[in-house]
Fold these 3 entries.
Entry 1:
Amino acid sequence: MKSVPHVPICDECIIKGHSIFKDLTTDQLDSVHYGKGSSLYKRGNIVYHEGHRINGFYCVQDGIVKIYKTGIDGKEQIIRFAKPGDIIGFRSVLSKELACTTAKVIEDSVLCFIPSENLFQLVKENPAFSMQLMQLTCRELGEANNFITDIAQKTVRERLAEILLILMDTFGLDSDKVLKISLTREEMANMVGTATESVIRLLSEFKLDGLIDLHGRKISLLDIPGLRKIANM
Amino acid sequence: MKSVPHVPICDECIIKGHSIFKDLTTDQLDSVHYGKGSSLYKRGNIVYHEGHRINGFYCVQDGIVKIYKTGIDGKEQIIRFAKPGDIIGFRSVLSKELACTTAKVIEDSVLCFIPSENLFQLVKENPAFSMQLMQLTCRELGEANNFITDIAQKTVRERLAEILLILMDTFGLDSDKVLKISLTREEMANMVGTATESVIRLLSEFKLDGLIDLHGRKISLLDIPGLRKIANM
DNA sequence: CGCTAATTTGAGTGACTTCAAGCACAGTGG
DNA sequence: CCACTGTGCTTGAAGTCACTCAAATTAGCG
């Protein structure tokens, strides 16, 4: 990572409008802005490491960050992806625990770092901000519970179809119905909780059934209702 | 459920000391106390239903409540158990979503119901309380992430051993090393995310290996290090 | 410098194995 | 007596292993 020539101004940040920061006063937004640092992270950079202490959280200004846990013999379990406007690392800051996940950049990113004290100060003086933060964690918790149920009850095939649809909802499709996020088959396997080979096999099956089309990492979702049916949603 | 003859007084509630309520002023505790209702719930009673709106949350005064989601063809996925001092339903209240889980009493319980407005009021006027609540949800989120990784990567055998240890940590053992919570094999299966038969078979295996002892629903944990080894912890 | 050669990384396949689900049925005990 | 526990047997989904092939990176070198 390296520092960014032009530090993005929170006040002007597109992120402001629809994020947890939307209830901050101009003064509070300024305090975030002046307290923060911004850095450019290249693909592959680690933002923070599982088990390490972090003394602040990050706001994704640009790029995509993969949040994952490392399980048995180093196998990754991807928890979520953070895209512009999302914040990462706040869970560990708030609960005052060590980071329980690793954050790795998968598309060159600009991240703003906001120190813990700043966060705690805002919670103290702005109840609306606290509510936003709480709602965010509660929504994430709800999603985590859904995922637990899926992973425990659905087949790999169902989960893979579901993940494709979730990726579509999160990152969208471009003109040719191609998913706007590029993942390796291994990463997809680490989301679904299966082996890389199984993902490869199932994706070709989906292609054979006319549900999707494959060109390397480009995956086009051709038959969304069909995928939804397989995913049991 | 039926109303309790003697409404437990928050001020005197043992729960107060170690719960999210510990930072409330006497006035605030009073407001919770006078705004709340208490009811006795018998085993099998449903406290709230997945998909329904709930206009408040519950504090478990006594008993055990099972929190679960209903997945494909009605199969339960147990998310957690709530014991005295725990609060349930707050996730949906805070995120202003419909309940994403069902809460069912598995040991006769006394639950205090605290209306949403009351909760929002406290968040507004007591930042320390907000912090407690946030830390609670963040810790739960961390646990959920752990569970996702486990269920995605560990075998049923490993998960079952782990669940036994988690139940020990949560509910403790009595004099004879017997787990202080009584679950059906099906409920254990619904925690682990497996079939009832698999739980039965694995429990007998564990017994054969001298790790546990079985007397109906009474499960004694004989060799905790052994279980920990199997669970990969 | 430019242009192969060498290495790495990811996608894809086939053969084989194994874990665990599902079904059917037999006890059993509150 | 019905819900729960327990057992045997079968089958299938998915994991593992062992490769090939293609593309992308890096290194080597005249």
Entry 2:
Amino acid sequence: MTVRVRFAPSPTGYLHVGGGRTALYNRLFSQGRGAFILRSDDTDQARSTREFADDILESMRWLGLTWDEGIEVGGPHGSYRQSERIERYGEVADQLVAAGHAYHSFATAEQLDEFRKAAQAAGRSPAYDGRFRLDDDEIARRLAAGETAPIRFAVNRPGETSFDDIVRGEVSFDHAQVDDFVILRSDRSPTYHLASTVDDVDFGITHVIRGEDLLSSTPKHLLLTKAMGAEPAVYAHLPLLLGPDGTKLSKRHGHTAVNAYRSAGFLPEALLNYLAILSWSPGEDEELVSLSEMAERFRLEDVSRSPAVFDVTKLEWMNGVYIRELGAAEFVARSLEFVEDDLGRDLDEDEMKAFAGMAPLVQERAKTLAEVGPQLRFLFAASVSYDPTSWEKVMMQPEAMTAVSAACTRLAELPAWDAESIETTLRSMLDEHGMSARKGLQPIRVAVCGSAISPPLFESLELLGRERSLQRLADVAQQLG
RNA sequence: GACCCCGUCGUCCAGCGGUCCAGGACUCCGGCCUUUCAAGCCGGCAACGCGGGUUCGAAUCCCGUCGGGGUCACCA
């Protein structure tokens, strides 16, 4: 049996990491078993924007979550944008009315509001039970008179809808909890429930994998599907992503957009891996898995049922692991834009060489690509800017002056300028003055790199070049003297 | 408030009736390495929410309770 799943974001915001995980799980589930479809649930014209729509596609591609059918790649089911299928939803709504599954509702906002308040106060379900529904003749009369009204689905009560959710098991809802929900607004635009269900049916979706926030909407979708005379999909509701404080992940917890992680220097494979591991385990105490390994082992039945806290710290660790696994050239290629961003300009040819030489050294200590720029700033910036804390801590030491000026004179006499010779020279200088490497090298580091935290010193000196190195040492020696 | 879902270290995940005085990862704390910072390696702290059952035996099954989350729009 071939499977058909979809990811259907609304372009009313950037692709959220939670959405990214949902897309990933859909993709993993369908891998090798069927099709992964990307659809745009853009019925909310007021809140949808082109920018968000573009961001979703771009973020999906950046993550490497390719789709088999849908937006931009096309497919046999016509448009994959709901905004282009409006007539179809109206048509279905009319059919449902004709078949007695739905009706034009003339209940006023006030009536509904009052009903809900009263129900709530009495400790009953606030779901609208259709009590203000008019008889067919009256409805026809009002419609004929030119009045407009939304179409509501007529939920049968008493009744119950239950389904077997792949991750949650048997779930059931009493129809007293399901309201006569609007499927078509008075302006004949479809609501989410209608559009989404119609598309799932029309596109032959076999499995709906989505967030748990939609769990209580599922009976509506099932009722609609049945009323349309279609075979219902199998549902799987994923646990929600939470912020560190245990509430639904939102902007106030930090970054939620996939693109924010991209610009913060995260690797897509790391983010994907982390997202996968959040509510699922590849087993065998393993955590680092590639997309293809995930696809091989992924089973919806193994997805966790409890919500997961999104922990950036662990993501950072994982990103560091992925960065270190990159080939040297790959690392250079991927981090270049961050270096140039940090610098505010492009690197020239010589700088590219220095960058390539230094790259392996920063690669093993970076958790994000965004850290690469600041770590190499000393190498490319015209003048060093000294970190006050480092200066305070190191240059105020008694041996600072001696170390810097001795290094300056000894290095000036050095015939060759390579890390090895530099190291030999500086170590003999250290011996001469009876200084430990710890005490003696730090002032030199700060003088040259501007900070007590830097890539390895000797290589830094080599790549910075004789002239600039000596210049910086001399400048600092003068300041200290 | 009603309904639904969930409940193992601070966090994520493993465990699916005995092999668990509970395992892995991140964080944190030590140590080693070391020119700084990282990385790496070694070690440590740290959990089955609570109460009843069922059973020879429960983290694992049942009930209750408490706690957390979600949904209750002519938004998706």
Entry 3:
Amino acid sequence: MQPSASKGVDSFDRLHPQIRRWIREQGWQELRDVQDRTIQAILGGDTDVLIAASTASGKTEAAFLPVLTRVADRTAPGVSVLYVSPLKALINDQFRRLDMLCERMEIPITRWHGDAPQGAKTRILRAPRGLILITPESVEALLLRRSADAEKLLGSLDFVVIDELHAFLQGPRGLQLASLLSRIELLGGVRPRRIGLSATIGDLALAASWLNPASPGSVAIIESSADGPELRLQVRGYVREPTEAGPDDLEIEGEPPKALDRIADHAFEILRGSNNLFFAGSRRSVEALADRFRRRAEAANVPNEFFPHHGSLSKELREELELRLKKGDAPTTAVATTTLELGVDIGSVKSVALLGPPRSLSSLRQRLGRSGRRQGAPAVLRVYVREPHLASDLDPLERLRPDIVQTVAAVRLLLDHFVEPPGLDPAVVSVALHQTLSMIAQRGGARADSLYRSLRSAGPFAEIYSPDYAELLRWMARPEVALLEQAPDGLIMLGEAGERLVAGRDFYAVFESDEEWRLSNGGRTLGVIPLSNVITVGSLLAFAGQRWRVVAVDDRAKVLEVTRHRSGRLPKFDRRSVEPIHDRLAAEMRAVYQSADVPPYLDAVARQLLEEGRQNFVEAQLAVRRYVNAGGDTHVMTWRGFAMNSVLAVLLTAAGLECEAHDLGVTVANATDNEVMGVLGNLTTTPSAQDLSEFVGNLRTAKYDAFAPEPLLRRMWTKTHASACARLPQLIKELS
DNA sequence: GACCTGCTGCGGTTTG
């Protein structure tokens, strides 16, 4: 190896001799900057380490080469390194990448997840050593069902490596993992060093405090200094047909082409012959597009290169497509939801396309990171944006052409390097309840103060104060809830309902899952659709990019046998809440309306749509006015994100108005602007978050909220919405 | 008007 920089020599020389030989055999010319700095941090210090770099920067090696160097000579029994990943597929990927190296170093490496071979798990239990690659749910199961084994395996770890850390910074799964890590530390009374691997994220300080809540400042942060590749961008505008309404559907022969048909025409020509990713936003739109592409290939009598990829498709179909993308010997475009955003290796693609405007900068950046990964290749992004046909009865909000404006605003924020920071999670109570049950089951009984200490040391439960937790425990022990029981000596044990809940197979995950039909074709599973689809023999389906007829329904096993058919119908995929838009994006949209520059990346139709949106903004006098009348309803324009709008909606609801929050503000039904202004003007003081929480309707949103006391959930609502409520007076001033 | 993620232990049978 010919080191090109002196600091590289130093890092390289610090690595284990076997690893140095392995590096030479890989033909690496030098260590990358991120690898060099990570080796220094891990081998030259004793702190936790956070590595934030793009997917292709070699951060897995950056972390594992020095970690393996450190643990190579360990003789004490017990596993040295616990690697945690949000995806089984990623575990399998990393296992393949590390297996050879570990074998040579005689360090056992074991996959531990639901589909991993049982034999290897048994082997490692007999002689606990080396590395374990695991999911949070499998950690949960290990602690809960086999706590003696867990202690033997995980009681003396040297390192915990958390991959895709950004996926754990927000949401219930991140809360669960934080608690699991603190429970692991209690097993052996040692705190392993934590290494976090993350895509480039907005707020590194926040990620550092997730990694080490007790001492966030001590975390060594290694951020990739490499700039992303050059960006080539086009935004294409499409006007829908006058008859187009509702969600995306299959193409109808003999009718004038809809906007989606024209988008498919364009993308089919442009993307054919190379590897691309087309993010379509919803599973329904993925299927609608995939069907169109397949029909175009058939009409042109060429092999189809476009295939769907989403969470309802079977693992086999998804892996086939991932492999085809990775091998790169047949041109392939994956039409996907967010399934291809996370780090499963699919090689490099020529371009990325989006259907509809980006809703968040974090997802836009993640998606862009999938393009232009080859040295010197530009990142190519196409955004296909549809706006409705202008009719006289069109809602004034739609006249503002918000989707085109949102796209332009998102591009501005992309160039401004903005990324949404995570907020306080609404699932803290639900996960605290879940972890309480799990810890009690693990230990066969526990004391309140010890349970609370474990949760608190995890970090993200800090907003649950000691009296809150006592209230939660008391509620869980009520006879009609029966999750807990207290022995006369104060020891807390599981109650009857608690035993039942913990025994279920559904207990390991902190997110909910619905019942589904499984679609089977000649012994092959295609995927699943929600049970809420009403199906009989003869029902038609469009799924996995093909069209099917149901030939048998097994009501008990919930299996549908299907065969190919000429026609089909898109199934219902249960939809949940929407992805909230951030304040900054809403504010940037207003800035786009108020400026005159025409971005060069817009095509002719998109330019015209932007122009129309700006004209209608001026016509509605929105530079000075905050109200738009629509029939008998009034749109209140806040130019703030979803969190703020939902707080305003609660306030107006409390005042007796009927309203709904949307991206740009709040729509008040059956009220004039004067009435809304009157309500706001009559407020002598701004209601506090606590006052408002009394009017929140849907407090129970997370998996175990049903078992939590309502007053506690209301108090937590005031905390999650505290910052929005604090900014309410300013908003009310603007609206008066 | 959204998306994604995960899963034990035991007793029985079969196979090498």
